[in-house]
């Protein structure tokens, strides 16, 4: 399917917006998606929502793994590596929440990065298993969570 914005490139995802209770879906290519994110981020910043993030201090705050600064993330709406999400969590959660309408990253990830959505689902199932005293199931879920997190815990 062609991108519904530029009508030039292949659409790989979609954006949704709700206006007057009516939800519309627009299929877009990665370039148009990035542009839409930047436009939305800029419009949010017009209200001063990110004024505290754009200060000079944010050129010093950076991911110890890839070196991407907080300022680069706020300007581009893209992180440098999967570890930016954990290393800079307190700084970038408001950005993620405003750009994606979710508290965690939604999108592609490197093969070696943990799948946070799957881990969150398993942790919820683990809580229910423990509450219902299904300890065998809880053990299996806990082991799967440990595998996804790379064996640490």
What does this structure look like?
With 153 residues, the protein is mainly alpha-helical. The chain folds into three domains: 1-46, Wheat Germ Agglutinin (Isolectin 2), domain 1, CATH 3.30.60; 48-109, no CATH class; 116-148. It contains six helices and two strands; from the N terminus they run ββαααααα. A two-stranded antiparallel ribbon has the order 1-2. α5 packs antiparallel against α6 (135-148).
Which helices and strands occur, and which strands form pairs?
Elements: E1 13-19, E2 22-28, H1 30-45, H2 70-76, H3 84-87, H4 89-100, H5 116-131, H6 135-148
Antiparallel strand pairs: 1-2
Helix pairs in contact: 5-6
E-strand count:
2
Please give the count of helices: 6
The helix-strand sequence is EEHHHHHH
Q: Classify the oligomer.
A: single chain
Please outline the major beta sheet.
2 strands, antiparallel
CA-based shape:
extended
- Evaluate the radius of gyration: 19 Å
Strand order of the largest sheet: 1-2
Mean pLDDT value: 75
Strand content: 5-15%
Q: Low-confidence stretches at least 5 residues in length (pLDDT < 50)?
A: none
SS-based class? mainly alpha
Share of residues in helices: 40-55%
Distance between the termini: 43 Å
User: In total, how many domains does the architecture comprise?
Assistant: 3
């Amino acid at each position: 399917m062609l991108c519904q914005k530029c009508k030039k490139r292949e659409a790989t995802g979609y954006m949704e917006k709700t206006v007057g209770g009516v939800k519309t879906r627009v299929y877009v290519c990665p370039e148009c998606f990035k542009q839409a994110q930047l436009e939305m981020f800029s419009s949010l910043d017009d209200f001063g929502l990110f004024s505290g993030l754009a200060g000079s201090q944010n050129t010093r705050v950076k991911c110890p793994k890839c070196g991407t600064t907080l300022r680069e993330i706020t300007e581009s709406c893209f992180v440098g590596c999967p570890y930016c999400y954990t290393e800079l969590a307190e700084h970038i959660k408001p950005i993620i929440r405003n750009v994606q309408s979710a508290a965690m990253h939604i999108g592609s990830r490197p093969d070696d990065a943990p799948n946070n959505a799957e881990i969150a689902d398993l942790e919820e199932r683990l809580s229910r298993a423990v509450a219902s005293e299904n300890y065998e199931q809880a053990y299996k879920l806990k082991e799967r969570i440990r595998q996804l997190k790379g064996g640490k815990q």
